[in-house]
């Protein structure tokens, strides 16, 4: 169970890192079937990208941290905190597995195991908040008739990676607790 939790936590940690770095949080949406699309737009936490005909990808980092909208600043902060906490939880889990020893009285569980479980649960929740917040905003805007069609976005791959990572981190935390 500890090894399975360690594997789930490690994959969840890598997924959290990937979701944080990926530029596909929000991707351009085209709801009209007769529209020919020459470029797609990706919006992430760190940069915007434009893919032209799937052949050329051009990405640009955001110019200034001070020019970012407050929700994007909050999303960045939560995901960065989640990455750091996931790394710490994974390292603590490794130490906990190493120092858990079977004995005649039953398995002796290291206090690191419980700490890793709590850290994984907290990290999974921390990832779930910004990913779900972004997903909810995208769905709300997509169905809002007041939002012009070129500004509508769809759920990007980073959100799905974030949801899967959150599920793995929560499962790892539950196993350790």
TrEMBL record:
<protein>
    <recommendedName>
        <fullName>Claudin</fullName>
    </recommendedName>
</protein>
<feature type="transmembrane region" description="Helical">
    <location>
        <begin position="109"/>
        <end position="135"/>
    </location>
</feature>
<comment type="similarity">
    <text>Belongs to the claudin family.</text>
</comment>
<keyword id="KW-1003">Cell membrane</keyword>
<dbReference type="InterPro" id="IPR017974">
    <property type="entry name" value="Claudin_CS"/>
</dbReference>
<dbReference type="GO" id="GO:0005886">
    <property type="term" value="C:plasma membrane"/>
</dbReference>
<feature type="transmembrane region" description="Helical">
    <location>
        <begin position="155"/>
        <end position="176"/>
    </location>
</feature>
<dbReference type="GO" id="GO:0005198">
    <property type="term" value="F:structural molecule activity"/>
</dbReference>
<dbReference type="Pfam" id="PF00822">
    <property type="entry name" value="PMP22_Claudin"/>
</dbReference>
<dbReference type="GO" id="GO:0005923">
    <property type="term" value="C:bicellular tight junction"/>
</dbReference>
<keyword id="KW-1133">Transmembrane helix</keyword>
<feature type="transmembrane region" description="Helical">
    <location>
        <begin position="74"/>
        <end position="97"/>
    </location>
</feature>
<dbReference type="InterPro" id="IPR006187">
    <property type="entry name" value="Claudin"/>
</dbReference>
<keyword id="KW-0472">Membrane</keyword>
<comment type="function">
    <text>Claudins function as major constituents of the tight junction complexes that regulate the permeability of epithelia.</text>
</comment>
<keyword id="KW-0796">Tight junction</keyword>
<dbReference type="InterPro" id="IPR004031">
    <property type="entry name" value="PMP22/EMP/MP20/Claudin"/>
</dbReference>
<keyword id="KW-0812">Transmembrane</keyword>
<keyword id="KW-0965">Cell junction</keyword>
